[in-house]
Structures are given as C-alpha cells and as structure tokens.
C-alpha cells in the first residue's frame, strides 16, 4: 500500500490542528489556549501550526470559518425543509440566531472571533451566506412577494440583523431570555420587506 502524499499529510495536519484548536478555544477561550498544548495533543509541532496557519490568529480564523460554514449549512437546511422561500428565509434567520445558545458558537464565533478577527460581516464565510440570502431575496422580489428593493441591500440587512441578534445573545447575561426577543424582532423587521402586509 502506498504512503500518503505530501498534500494528503498537510491536509491531515490542518484538520488535526483545527480540531485541537476548536476544542481548546471552546474550553479555554482564545487568549488562554496554549499553542504548545494544542499541538502536542495532536502530535505536531508549533512549526506545523505556523506552516499551515501563520500564527494563532490564523488558526482562529480557520476555526471560525469552519464553524460559521457549519452554522450556515444547518440554517440553510432548516430553511430548505419548508419548501417556501419566504418561510424558509425566516426559519433560516431564526435558526442562525438560535445557534448563539451553543457554548462553542458563543465563545469562538461570537465573542473571541470579533474581538480578534474584527468585523464579522467582512469574514469570507459571511460572504457566501450573503450570496445565498441575496438569491432568495431576488426570487421573492421576482415573484412580487417582496417590495422591489435592492436585493443586495435587503440581503445585507437581513443577514446583519441575524448576526447582530446572535452577537447580542452571546454577550448577554441571560442568553435564553434574550433569544425569543431577538427572533421576534428579526421576524418583525423582515416582514417590513413584504409587498403586502402579513
């Protein structure tokens, strides 16, 4: 049996480092996570970390990207089950907001991520989420379901509301109490786009 190629080994090392970092960042937070402990746990060196991610911040960016993509996929799957673009859009936004209750999502994506990586709306993973929302908004406008507003502007505002609601939940002292308020406000704001009042 042939050994693994260099590319396969590098990809395997990347995956190990992301897994270990995700665990460490969730348990200890970004600031308290030790890169020496993290690399030792998966049998790699700091050199492997620097080669793959540049530094600790680069590793956090990779972890945030992975979690954000998982959240978007889960939210989109929830929305797709409804087979109705409008209800799907509302369900997708509510699902994204609700994921802010997950301790891993709270700590890594919503607290440490913005503190270390800056504005979440500028993250690459948010751009792909925006594209999906924009396509849905375009379909709803074409069907006359939504007001004929600029689709990109509407998508950016809808995504911004969901993201900011999630950030609010993560930073609050009682996330479970904030969740229903955030979802209710998200739905109320989104219905302002309807061509005919609900």
UniProtKB/TrEMBL annotation:
Keyword presence, DNA-binding: yes
PROSITE patterns in the cross-refs: HTH_TETR_2
Residue span(s) of domain HTH tetR-type: 11-71
Key word DNA-binding present: yes
Sorted UniProt keywords: DNA-binding
DNA-binding region(s) in UniProt: 34-53
Organism, as annotated: Phyllobacterium phragmitis
Highest rank taxon of the organism: Bacteria
This protein's name: TetR/AcrR family transcriptional regulator
